[in-house]
Amino acid sequence: MIRLSRSAIEAGRRNNKCGLVLGAAENERVLCSVLKSCSNLKHVEQAHGLMLRTALDHDTILLTQFIDKCSSLGFSSYAYSMFSFNSQTHSHIYVFNAMIKALTLSHSAFEALLVYKSIGWAKLRPDGYSFPFALKAVADLQAVRLGTQIHSQTICAGLDTNNHVVTALIQMYSSCAHILDARQLFDIVSVDEVSVWSAMVAGYAKVGDPDSAWDLLDRMTQTQTNALLISWTAVIAGYAQMDRPNKAISVFRRMQLENVEPDEIAMLAALSACAQLGAIQIELGECIHGYIHKRGFDQMVPLKNALIEMYAKSGNICKALQVFENMNHTTVVTWTTIISALAFHGLGTQALEMFSRMETAKVEPNDITFIAVLSACTHIGLVDLGRYYFNVMRYRHAVQPKIQHYGCMIDLLARAGYLREALGLVSQMPFKPSAAIWWSLLAASNIHADAELGEFAMQHLMKLEPWNSGNYAILSNIYASTGKWEKSVMTRKMMREKGVRKMPGWSFIQVSNRAHEFIAGDTSHPQFDRIHGILFNMNEQMKIAHHQLSELCELLDFDG
């Protein structure tokens, strides 16, 4: 925390003894001018010294402006020190509100709530601005019990139906995962204010219930406001985050039909959904790319990063590289995205070359970058290089390996046949092995016909994910490949006895720009009967064609 400048305080006191040279109005004008021109900590200290010299450090308006300026420059802790130094002399709620807001924006939630508490000590009452700032601090701390106390205070103050206060309360309850309390409040106040509805929509999306969010959004008054745009974006992002990209795209298209113009955040959410669907929604992704260019968003790095990921996951790695090469500014996320994209396409050598370019560009890699690098090594089986990067990560870049890094390294070793070394790394790592790690060993055991290691990995997988039919199938195949037919049959039998069902297969198909999902055994598609009839006719025609081909082959054999 930045403390008050001793030189500022001493200079202020010394100069104050000399008397005020200028009139009060002129002093205020000069101080306002100084505050507007502040751009660093030294300027802030000079403005503070001037306030002390001219005895304006108790002026409500100027003190509020000083706090706001400190906040905008990132020096909220300096303002807090100044505020606390004379906390007993502040006589207006404006000063307290400014201080709570500044501390909340600087993520100093605990200090913000201390200031909120001191409002009572100053014999003042919180107003319609005090409560929202305090509730934001509560949400940051996830202190829902304190939030309910503040809720009670809003009722006592007669502000429990104030739109700003209600919005903040809904956001607080939603952030603390008390969505039912948020909805109860929403239903009680029953206001037709877009900001309140938007808070409720965002709350549902935040807790992973995009269907309820969409239901509310569909009933909202479609007045073109920033709150409405935020609501649409929240629903699209909510569906994308819940792995329901089809619905996310559907809402995005509806948003366009409602003439709500998407901003960069909405486009990020839509691109995320396109990336999940891959080639099925490449046309929409290309349309969004064109829209980004049309709106002049070409150099927005997050959007370009999303475009790289979307093109890569849609199978167009060349287009992803083109987007990357045309960027004027890149970040560690950009480099990591393109390295991951190349590794995803099996282009391990190019991915590692891209990492070398990243180092040459003096961009410091992060933990996610090294996951991509180790994955690239796995794709091309470069065990020695993988070991090298695993060590470089720690000793040159001070990135401590997480379980994902160990998982990549174990997968690399196991695939390459270094099964004992991989198992040794499992025992050495400071984490409890995940199902993915044991699956890597099980899969490698299948490749290298090591039934003993397969059994060992399966013992752990049965504890971690006993419902996964794929694990049983792999172990059965390992036994079969090593000639242990009895154990292979017993594994299948054990799977049936435990009630483990084989996961149904599924597929996507795109018709008229709409993706249709089909799951084996599912009959819920609205055109199921028609689809089933067509498939039946196709099957019959294939049987006839096969029969005719067989007869032709017999004739050829006879002629021979």
Structure write-up:
Helices cover 71% and strands 2% of the residues. The chain has a two-stranded antiparallel ribbon with strand order 1-2. It has 30 helices and two strands.
Q: Categorize the overall geometry.
A: globular
**Terminal-residue CA separation:** 95 Å
Major β-sheet profile = 2 strands, antiparallel
Helix content: over 70%
Give the strand order, joined by hyphens, for the main sheet: 1-2
Tally the beta strands.
2
Number of helical segments with 4 or more residues: 30
| Low-confidence sequence ranges | 1-21
Q: Could you tell me the radius of gyration in angstroms? A: 32 Å
| Mean of all residue-level pLDDT scores | 84
Beta-strand content: under 5%
- By secondary-structure content and strand pairing, the structural class works out as mainly alpha
